[in-house]
Amino acid sequence: MARTMTIAAVSLLAAAVAPAAGQDWDGCGERASLRVAVLDESGTVALPGATVVLRWNEARRRPVREAADPQGRFFLCVPRDAHQATLWAELGNGSSEQAVVAFEPGDVHEVELRVLIGTVRAGRIIGRVYDGVTGDAVATAAVSVRGRGRQAQSNRRGRFVLSAVPEGQHELEVGHIGYAPLGHAVTVTRGLTTEVEIGLVPTPVEMEPLVATVTRSRRLEIKGFYERKLWGELVSGGTFFTAADIERRRPQRISHMIADMSGIRLGRDGRFYSTRLSAGFSGAGCRIKTFLDNVDVTRTPLHSLVLPVEVAGVEIYKGPASLPAEFGGSDTRCGAIVIWTK
Prior knowledge:
The chain is 8% helix and 39% strand. It has four helices and 26 strands. It is globular, with a radius of gyration of 22 Å.
């Protein structure tokens, strides 16, 4: 049984979409399936290569971030234990509004995501709601932008997403039973994500709400850095530095900051080696593969390629078990270091 859903720029496909080459639209068996079509704002032009982002409500499951196929489509067999997810599409500075989909075994969900580009000057607000006293996540908090009808609800980890918010100054409203309501001014920049940490105060407690706001790097968001950071920190699957972290440390070389991590050694050749893993019989040490903007630069000393002020983000994976699929391979058995420039 196919479910129906219509929200602003996200609507149900009127008819089934033909499968892409090599895909079996009915191959999920008793599992739920998700079929996504990414189109322009008018709904008439497919957008191949647009990024489909899917964030599960289950905290243990890694977010999905995949490119649509040449027909602008994306297909997924939903894991058996997944019950709900939030998804949207991105292309350049454009983004669709978000869709929240609930899954049941055997259901087929056909979703159309219309990316708002050009005529709409919009950004996104993404954040976390927590108890300002205990630090625990606050689920089911209502989050909205004053003057706009749509409302988001925080999940079990307290996280929420508000997509396609017009650029400019807005009033963010957050409420939950048992907590003092919060109104906070937030500035949305076109094509960028503003990240907000909201500490709600239980009504009997006399203290001010806690709000921290930062604007994400659009480049890092497109490259999936924040999704990997969210997952990696959740399961201890990696170490991540942002430009703000680097600015606080003020390292003379970015390689010095990376080599300060336990389990990593900076060799005399300017390359990184694992002190935890063995390279076998080579005797040269276990060299960690290094990427700069997705280009393999393992054989070149990092300090000769990039300065600390040019770095937007760093990802450090100390072994193959924690490596995301996009950085995996037989030559990354010693781990990987991924550098993104501004």
